Amino acid sequence: MDVLAELRTRIHTLAAGSPHPLRDNGFIVASTPEATEPLGTVAEPAFALVVQGAKRSTLAEHVFEYHAGEYLVVTVDLPLVSQVTEATATQPFLGFGLPLDARTIAQLLLDAGPGHPTPSDGIAIAVNTAGQALLDAVLRLLRLTDSPQDLRVLGPAIRREIHWRLMTGPQAGLVRQIGLADSRLTTIAQAIRWIQHRFDQVLRVDDLAEAIGLSVSTLNRNFRAVTAMSPVQYQKHLRLQKARLQLLTAGGEVAAVGHSVGYDSASQFSREYRRMFGAPPGQDVTRLRGLATVVE
């Protein structure tokens, strides 16, 4: 049995019968029997491998398609719109995910010594084909699920190895920035956390620049380089995704939900929501709930 075939078998067994990704043991496995609607989320730094089927993630105008044997790597918190694009009942989408840990990457950088790749100038998200060494490490981690004691003892070492494989792979320059305290990516990650803690407040870019110790022009240039959008655009994406999730899970009046995420104008909220998700809030959420009912 080749590596991808065994990965498919193990993920299907682990995730069978669960409508949601399983997040135990420090990693994630997911199985989905059909294509899904585009849904927004704030993706944290992570490695996401497709083992069967295909997925699409969109950041602003950038679209990332990844299929079996390919992976997505995200290195700062990004407001993505993602969907499974290929899945059937007989060949479900199967995926594996691992959060990327800054402390692990920093320690690996120290252990590796000098000779680091040049830091990436691109945005903080990329798709690549998984090499054999990376696939082997993921498979060995999943094999440990046969023995919970082995997983507890040996799992951390293999998760560390997966980090190393990413740090020495096609996106080495991007991944290694996570562990560098003075990297551009780390500085923009600080700016992102600042926005996240105040997403429902008026964003003054001058205040943000002062808080992280950059000039406004440098902040805007670096923020756009890392996230493909300006700080104000990032905040808008974050607000609208939080509003959509709130409407879908908790309900409430559209105007009240818009106000709770920072919109003083209900009409502006509905207009920007429609522009981002393709339909007004009430219509969009009614459609999504209907789809969920059909799936269940």
Summarize it.
With 296 residues, the chain is of the alpha+beta class.
Give a quick set of tags describing it:
296 residues; alpha+beta; Jelly Rolls; Arc Repressor Mutant, subunit A; five-stranded antiparallel beta sheet; four-stranded antiparallel beta sheet; 12 helices; DNA-binding transcription factor activity; AraC-like DNA-binding protein
Structural write-up:
The protein is α+β, with helices and mostly antiparallel strands. It folds into two domains: 3-179, Jelly Rolls (Sandwich), CATH 2.60.120; 181-296, Arc Repressor Mutant, subunit A (Orthogonal Bundle). Helix content is 50%, strand content 19%. The chain contains twelve helices and nine strands. The protein has helices at 3-15, 102-112, 132-143, 148-167, 172-176, 184-197, 205-212, 216-227, 231-249, 254-260, 266-277, 281-295, and strands spanning 28-32, 39-43, 46-52, 54-59, 62-67, 70-74, 78-86, 93-99, 125-129. A five-stranded antiparallel β-sheet has the order 1-8-3-6-9, with helices on one face. Helix 6 (184-197) packs across helix 7. It is globular.
Query: What is the percentage of strand-forming residues?
Result: 15-25%
- By secondary-structure content and strand pairing, the structural class works out as alpha+beta
Form type:
globular
Helix content: 40-55%
User: How many beta strands in the DSSP annotation?
Assistant: 9
Number of discrete helical segments: 12
Organism: Crossiella cryophila
GO molecular function: DNA-binding transcription factor activity; sequence-specific DNA binding
Domain HTH araC/xylS-type: 189-287
Keywords: DNA-binding, Transcription, Transcription regulation
